[in-house]
Automatic annotation (TrEMBL):
Record Pfam families: ALGX (PF16822)
Coarse class of the protein's main subcellular location: periplasm
Protein name listed in UniProt: Cell morphology protein
GO molecular function, one term: acyltransferase activity
Domain spans labelled AlgX/AlgJ SGNH hydrolase-like: 2-233
Keyword RNA-binding on entry: no
Matching InterPro entries: ALGX/ALGJ_SGNH-like (IPR031811)
Pathway the protein takes part in: Glycan biosynthesis; alginate biosynthesis
Amino acid sequence: MQRSLKKRGIDLLVAVVPDKSRIAAAQLCGLYRPEVQQARVVQWTNSLKEAGVDTLDLTTTLQPLGDTAYLRTDTHWSESGANAAARALALHLRKVGFRATPQRQFQTSIAPIAERPGDLVRLAGLDWLPLSLQPAPQSVAATQITELASEAASGVDNLDDLFGDSNLPNVALIGTSFSRNSGFTGFLQRELGAPIGSFARDGGEFSGAANVYFDNPAFRQTPPKLVIWEIPERDLQTVYEVINLRP
């Protein structure tokens, strides 16, 4: 796929999100993480790099954060983890000389604290218990990142821009619910200084979002310059659907 994209003038960056059980191992409460899983991220990312695929393993980015990189009652990353991942991706892209466009400025605000339901209660089979016996839910003050209104308005100031492609993002994000949780897309836009097209899908697993996006006429009509493909470590073992890029 990387070679097919390259022929179209599109770069690919694969970002691998490590398991929560890898980063927050101290919180496993004695649960066993199979030894065979310890090397799978390094082995997989190394194989991609050897094949010429630009790859970023986010393990070293999230490890210093420990359990704070993930939500307490959820398998997904927290805002701290999502923000750190966004910074790492933006830094990586600057190092390889990629510039996201159109350049914009963003403003940050904090929403009131609200309960944030987690998926661990369901995955642990505890959702049938009375709420009083379930783990206490987590409350989060979500960060909201929006493009400055003046920037958005100034971006469409002539007919060429209005009906052309100059104001379309040159970065597309595909992936899973990680890209749709804890403000990751907003953090990434802020770090890149540009809006991005987000085509991530909840439950997308390894290649679900990729198949839908690359089969979309919009991809062929207005292709990006870069595709960031976010893949969780836990989905490296899921069934891979062959991705066919239409001419």
